[in-house]
Amino acid sequence: MHKQIFINLPCKSLPASKAFFEALGYRFNPQFTNEHGACLVLGENLFAMLLTEDFARGFTAKPLVDAKTATEVLVCLSCESREEVDELVAKARAAGAAVPRPPQDHGFMYGHGFEDLDGHIWELAFMSGMPPNA
Questions:
Q1: pLDDT tens-digit map of 31-88
Q2: Distance of alpha carbon 91 from its chain centroid, rounded?
Q3: Domains and CATH numbers, the chain
Q4: Please, which residues have CB within 8 angstroms of residue 29's CB and are 6 or more apart in sequence?
Q5: Whose CA is closest to 82, among 63, 99, 105, 102?
Q6: Nearest Cα to 56, choosing from 48, 45, 68?
Q7: Within 13 Å of residue 29, how many CA atoms lie on the same side as its CB?
Q8: Lower CB density within 10 Å: C or N end of the chain?
């Protein structure tokens, strides 16, 4: 079926957004990065395209959502451990992210998250097992 995912997210300042994610330890694919957009590598075959707002408008007839005032998408990434979740949230906070909620511990799943510089919500989760009654 599908082999890759590209999440497209508009951003107000592409240089600031790139610096933010680089501070979290992520890298960008230079083959798909220019002054209009940057290909954020999230994992094997997992990518987010950070697009300038003007460039993003070229892909839709709908108005762009201001992610600081409305939620247009929740991006959830799996992590290898609780420590990785906490480490990424700490790096995001240090790089200027908002962290509006405390961590959530559901026993089999631990999660926390942040809002990037543009307000996009990034949830991070570590699953140590299956939910009860699954």
A1: 999 999 999 999 999 999 999 999 999 999 999 999 999 998 999 999 999 999 999 9
A2: 13
A3: 5-127 (3.10.180.10)
A4: 39, 41, 47
A5: 105
A6: 48
A7: 15
A8: N
